[in-house]
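anyone else get weird line breaks when pasting these?? whatever heres mine. first is seq + tokens for prot A
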Amino acid sequence: MKNYEEWNKYKFEIEKQNPFSSKYMTDDGDIFYVEPIFYTMLCSFKEHHPKEIERILDEIDRVVKVNHRVVFTGNYEHPLTIVSDDFIILEIFDITDPLNIFVEDKSRGSDYGD
């Protein structure tokens, strides 16, 4: 886990049961986790849309404030973070798609088939 600079304004906490996730607590008592793959994907948005990163971070803050307990994961079906059922699990696209900020995924399978 790493204390990411984007969330320096929040209290960072190390949690043994979630060694790969960065845990943050707001002054209001809201809790959120950032998994490494989510952060990697966020960095991709920074690279492709540097002027939009503040909007993305503001939306992350808004989502935490509204939902109080959030895990930001790379894979909704298989999050790394172990939490109780009162947490919502979100991927980067849950944040960026409503903002109409997209990074095109050009990876695809081979066009050569049998």
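and prot B, same format (seq, then tokens)
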Amino acid sequence: MKEINYIIIRAEENNVKIITKKNNNEENLDIINIGEVLIININDNIINFKIVGKARIISKLDPIISE
């Protein structure tokens, strides 16, 4: 059975930017507003992501707040 890992990002202010980069160097920009949630499947060839703005990030590790 394939394990699926997700990162959940909830915007704590408007215009939070999430930039994801895949292993083929493709980048994707998502902009979410306060209260909106973005769920990222990190098994989807994503090698890293960057968050600009205040957001709550939930993963298998611990909740983190980006400011």
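btw re prot B: The mean pLDDT is 85. DSSP finds no helices and seven strands in the chain.
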